[in-house]
Amino acid sequence: QKEVEQNSGPLSVPEGAIASLNCTYSDRVSQSFFWYRQYSGKSPELIMSIYSNGDKEDGRFTAQLNKASQYVSLLIRDSQPSDSATYLCAVMPVYDKVIFGPGTSLSVIP
Amino acid sequence: ETGVTQSPTHLIKTRGQQVTLRCSSQSGHNTVSWYQQALGQGPQFIFQYYREEENGRGNFPPRFSGLQFPNYSSELNVNALELDDSALYLCASQVQGTQYFGPGTRLTVL
Fold this sequence. Notes:
By secondary structure, chain A is mostly beta strands.
């Protein structure tokens, strides 16, 4: 089993819709979770970090964490064409290492 | 703007050669991590340095080595380059458990 898995893409949503990105992880001791956005040819850019069970909202983005289910998700409300990118889920099981998922490609159709 | 810079932006080498990639972080950022990102995949952890000492390593062979200097710069050295080493190499400065990435170096091995 891969350490961090994400829903396979590409994911296409119409402009204005909600995009839902999912991630599961295998290491139960993980305490820190991150979502990064990566545009083609660019480096990853931090969107959200979440550490406690529940929801965390930042503008149009909401991260959800369920440690019992080893599941973390990212919701993007009112999706815009500029949200089209690859979204990387990252998990920090120990302080000195971050494990990334393979990424989910999102395309927002005008 | 993450305050992390990398050089060069692009690099072309031939199989068997050696390469040195450079990264510079902001003053006071004592932890730097290096990642390899192959096309279509998530970043893979190579190693991390904290105050000039290696502080964790991923599943990469010894021909991948690094250095961190007192001026918050660091290097990734790769010996005996192989075709599969072609990738985007990312340096990340870690601040309070969160990784902030530089723009990356695109290495092509022919």
